[in-house]
Amino acid sequence: RDKKGKPIRFFGTQIDLTERKKAEERLLEHQSKLKAMASEMLMTEERERQRLAVGLHDEVCQKLVLTKLALESSLQLVSDSKVLASLRIACGAIGETIEQADSLTFKLSNPVLRQLGFVIALEKYLTEEIRQKHGIEYELEGDEQLGTLQDEIKNCLFRVTRELLTNVVKHAQACKVKVSARESQSQIYVRVQDDGVGFKESQAGSKVSQTARFGLFSIREQLEYLGGHLEIDSVPGRGTKATVVVPLTKKAIV
């Protein structure tokens, strides 16, 4: 400053952030490309699952059914008790194989999900897998609007909901599970709430099994590709509430 106190020179440091900004832009672009690639991989996987399921049903299952019918017809032509016993065992084994193949077909690519939509496929899964196989009662509230979702959204929602229900079966010791699926304010909400043992969220790492933790990690990864996320609220002795949130864009509805 001069004698009157006016500044006559300044001292400072200038940092050129151009390269840093460019690096950040390149990183964002790279992340965007990775998400696009991951999304395309999921779609490719789903198409391959569908191709395998159709082949398994139309070729393998149909041939097994015809073979079983032929063996059953042969039973009437055989009088030897030992041969009859062997044929009946063979028919039973083929019948079990047909059931297993049908189940595998359903797991590879759910035809109900593909043809009738998310809510109806979810109700079928809850009835056959949760209630009938595991004895857990369920309550379902579904929005019919979700029946017109784009395949990518629909498949992802079904996969992550199925994973959450699998966790309920394996870890919650629940008697009942409530599932709701709705659309609100341009977002899709799918909630799975059980009346099981629950856990302290601060102790999730130690209380939840490694398999369950991996399942939750997988769910979060899949949702991230769609710009969604998973919220978990659990209290010991009062069950667990898991909420899937996915943004609903115009192209998400067909």
Automatic annotation (TrEMBL):
Query: PROSITE patterns from the xrefs?
Result: HIS_KIN (PS50109), PAC (PS50113)
Keywords recorded for this protein, A-Z: Kinase, Transferase
Q: Could you state a single Gene Ontology molecular function term?
A: kinase activity
Record-annotated Histidine kinase domain positions:
157-250
The alphabetized list of GO BP terms reads:
phosphorelay signal transduction system
Stored Pfam families: HATPase_c (PF02518)
Q: Which InterPro entries match?
A: HATPase_C_sf, HATPase_dom, His_kinase_dom, PAS-assoc_C, Sensor_HK_TwoCompSys
- Which sequence ranges are marked TM in the entry? none
The residue ranges of the PAC domain are 1-29
Protein name in the entry: Oxygen sensor histidine kinase NreB
Q: Could you tell me which species this protein originates from?
A: marine sediment metagenome
